[in-house]
Amino acid sequence: MPLDPETLAKLKFLVVDDEAFMRTLISRVLKGLGAVQVTPCEDGRAALDRVVTGADVILCDLNMPGMDGIEFLRHLTQTPFAGAVVLISGEDQRVLSTAESLAKAHDLNVLGALSKPITPAGLSTLLEKLAAAGSATRRRGGPVDRITEDDLRRGIECDELVVFFQPKVRVHDRKVVGVESLVRWQHRERGMIPPLAFIPVAEEMGLIDALTDAVYAKAARQGGRWLADGQDIKVAVNVSVDSLNRFDLPEVIVGTAAAEGLDPSHIVLEVTESRLMRDIRSSLEILTRLRLKGVGLSIDDFGTGHSSLEQLKRIPFTELKIDRAFVFGAARDPAARAILDSSVNLARNLSMSTVAEGVETQEDWDLVESLGVDMVQGYFIAKPMPADQFDAWLSDWKG
Ligand code: C2E
Ligand code: CA
Ligand code: CA
Description:
The chain has 399 residues and is an alpha/beta fold. The protein has helices at 5-10, 20-33, 44-51, 69-76, 93-105, 120-132, 149-157, 195-204, 208-228, 249-259, 280-292, 308-314, 334-349, 362-371, 387-398, and strands at residues 12-16, 37-41, 57-61, 84-89, 109-115, 161-170, 176-187, 191-193, 234-240, 267-272, 296-302, 319-322, 353-356, 375-376.
């Protein structure tokens, strides 16, 4: 049953296409179906700025100069956007379906893909899925209300950030060799807020350094406690390349670790890119000095960005984390499996260790084991947990 015009009128649509003609055409088709709030965006960057102010459905062209559709989707997963996506392309169906599965693997709610030229009937069929799910589904669960700078600053100052830990297990003996530290915000009014809802805000508002410091301090303290308990567990913390602009960072990282009784080799920084322009030289220098001091460096979400290979060449990473888009369900997806396999070989040739993220089933585990992946992280082992739960889990796991 087609979505009724009343519902369509309430939804906010973004139309992202580099061609003015296509923007007009798609907007017209939407309005013909009953949509009222339609905002055209000439590129991904403009769309990302709009996302923060609220959008329910994004219609995105895959072929755009500058930031292409795939890159746009990757950045979108780093925002609080919790609406639905329709992919549009003039390319053949294979490109569309690969893009669709990549987006789904990143928990985006993809209604489907349309080949150009799009028709009212084709679009209407996809939008019907919104009705089935009960309005624009908030699958990613983040609060869509804008988080304000003041509130986030207050949250950080009032110690409302909490750190969860998810185990990294060595494949050959199933030993827990590390944890990834994942931040959450225990908001005094809004309850637990997931990281993707406030990290982009922190980056945008210049609060990311304060956030990283708070998370790192808690993670290092916990790592020190584990070591004192006889648990030799490496502690990984996420940092975005853009925040690598403080030249004293290597000293701060190593100094804080030492204060908790940890050697630099107990610390791993998981490095990702985000959407801001960055000063490559300063981040390169900082990462190299961290490595020289013995801190582990992991290239996160490997396989999803354009510059991943480029970065591998430039930065002395010790660990490669294969994105879960190429892990979960890879046993039944030849393309994902090929990427997984070649990532493992690449890492081996560069003497890096490998971590497969997003292992959710025995089938996923068996596949990564057969391909020679070193470590596994995913719901199949355990979800991220607060430190006390982690300790209980760990004693069960060992026992
Ligand atoms: P990430 O670095 O890729 O972290 C892994 C995410 O995958 C976590 O989501 C984790 O809960 C989830 N995950 C783990 N195993 C599975 C699995 O088997 N299946 C599925 N579907 N998901 C799995 P989380 O905790 O929501 O974190 C999301 C992202 O937020 C992280 O992605 C990271 O980019 C960012 N983030 C989290 N904490 C921090 C932080 O302290 N600083 C910065 N800069 N970013 C952070
Ligand atoms: Ca990570
Ligand atoms: Ca990741």
